[in-house]
Amino acid sequence: MRREWSLAAAYAVLLVVMAFVAPGFFAAENIRDMVLANTPVLLIAIGMTLVILTGEIDISVGSQFAIAAIVVALFAKSACPCSRS
Fold it and tell me: CA 54, 57, 58, 59: dihedral to nearest 10 degrees?
């Protein structure tokens, strides 16, 4: 229990420091951008948390994530009007 409190305190200190060092960090646009940029990782993390909680270990998620990124990039490239001759 003590470890959790120290982690929460360190996180609170980090948030206070960020409020003074970079006031724009807590702007609505920045928070929205961070959430949108990290949504794929969040979805993978939620799935892996459930897998680990059930006692299974699955290390193939990283490779599936990489393959999905490549496939999305190929689809984006093929749909881009600037790549057509």
Answer: 150
